[in-house]
Protein: Rrf2 family transcriptional regulator
Organism: Streptomyces roseochromogenus subsp. oscitans DS 12.976
Amino acid sequence: MKAEEIAAAQGIPHKFLEGILGDLRRAGIVDSRRGGGGGYRLARDAADVTVADVIRAVDGPIVPVRGGRPTGLAYTGNAQPLLPTARYTDVNGRL
């Protein structure tokens, strides 16, 4: 799929998307082809791409929260809705 098509469908600037796609390409998540029939496609099966893979590709390594593993966290009060986000990945980057 062409980057221009993805950018238009998502309502984001083309240059911004090109930066993200470049990060994903360098991480081996997408492949790109130049030319009239070119564009971007997944480099591997979608089932083999985790949310953690994408986050690492775009934002860098995922680090422990407050020095501990996400599964050991306990938030209370107004911070409680943050817990599912902090626990989205295990040590191997799997959901």
